[in-house]
Amino acid sequence: MLKVSSGEDGYLNNWIHTCDSCQAAACTLYCHTDSAYLCHGCDKHIHGDNTTALSHHRVWICDACEAAPAAVTCSADAASLCIECDIQVHSVNPLASRHTRVPIPPISGQICSSSSVQQDGQLPGTMFDTKNEIAALTMELNLEINEDEMDSWLLLEPGNTDNQTMSGFTYGEQLDEYVDVVDTCTESFGPEQSSDQQQLVCVNCPEDSGSDSVVPVQTLRTKNQPLQEETQLQKQQLHSTYFNSEQSGSKTAFTNYPSSSLRVPMLMITPAGIPNSYTGFPATTTTTTEILPNPWLLMPLQFTSMNREEKVLRYREKRKSRKFEKKIRYASRKAYAETRPRIKGKFARKTDKGIEDDQMFSKEDNGYGVVPSL
DNA sequence: TCATGATGTACGGCCACAGAAATTA
DNA sequence: GTTAATTTCTGTGGCCGTACATCAT
Prior knowledge:
14 helices; alpha+beta; three-stranded antiparallel sheet; zinc; DNA-binding transcription factor activity; 374 residues; nucleus; CONSTANS-like 2 protein; zinc ion binding; DNA-binding; Double Stranded RNA Binding Domain
C-alpha cells in the first residue's frame, strides 16, 4: 500500500509504505518472507509470537525513499539508506562520498527495545536493537576517524573514560588500526585507482575459488565504460555483498554472534566509498571470527536508552550547525595569494615591476608587511 | 510522455610562492 | 645534544573547463 507523504523539509516527497498489517502506521521494516511492509508494533506482534516467525528475513526501510530495504547506515546523514539511495546520495559530491557507511545487518529475532536487558554471559554487543544504534555507533566511529570534524561532531563526553574505553580497547587504538587498513587498501591499488572514489572494492568469495578466504575484488572502470554501466555494476556488487551472500549461502564474511542469530557483515564502507574488507589478514582464513580481529565491532554496545537518545540528539544538533565554509589556516598565505599576480586566475610569476613594488612597499611599511599567521 | 537543446550551477584542477616542517651537516 | 643550512611540503585565490541539473520547446 502506498500513500503520498511530504517530508517536513520538503526534501522527501516520496511515496512511502504504510504498514500492510494495521494499514495505519508508517512501516519501518520489510519482511521478505511475508513480502509485507510492517510497522514496529505489527512486527512485534507477528514475529514475536513464535520461533518460526522470528526467523523471517526482515530488513529496515530506507530513510530516503522509504520504500526499498535499507542496506547501509550513514553516520553523517543519520540515515539508513537502500543501495540506490546510498549511491545517489553519496555520489553527489566528494564530501558526501566520504561519509562512513556501515552495512545494516538483517533483522533477526525479535526487535529489542532500546533498554534491552543484557542476558547473563552474553555479549551485549550483539544487541543492535535499533538501526539508530547502529547509526550512533557508525557516527562515533566517524568522529574518531575524521579528526577535523571531531570538534563539531564529538559526542563523547570529554574526560569520560567510560566512553573512550570499551571492553579494554580504546577507540584510538581501534581506529588507528582501522585507518591503517584503509591506507593499506588505498595504497595497494595505486594512485590511479585510489583517486577514483567511484570505484568499489567488494568483499566477494567466488564460489569457484574453492576457498573460504575473503578476497577483495577490485572493479576497474575502463575508459569507454559508460558511467551508467558502472553504477549498475556497483549496485549489483553492493547487493551481492549485502544480501545475496546470506541468501545464497555464499561465504561472504559474516559474524555469527553467539547470543543471537544476528549476523553482521564483516566489511565496512570506507569514507572513499570502498567497502573495507580488512585486507591484510591471511587469505587462508576460514572462520569469520578470525577474519576480523578488530575488537570494536565485537565490543559491547552498552548504550543505555538515555545515552543513545542523547548522543543522537546531540549529533543531529551538531549536524545542523555544521559548516562547510573554507577555513583559512594561514592568513599570511591568504594575503599573499590575494596580492599575487594572476593570469586567467592562475598564479603567475612576479614581474620585475612587481618585485620592485614589493621592495618599495617593504621599505615604506617596514615591519607591517607580514600578516601574522593564525 | 519523451527527446532535445539552452541555460544555470557546482566543483576540481591549475598556477607561483611564502612559510612551515623535515632533513642533513 | 644543539644549531644552522638545506630541502621538501603545504596552503592560498581566481579563472576555466567539465559534468550535471533544470527548464523550455
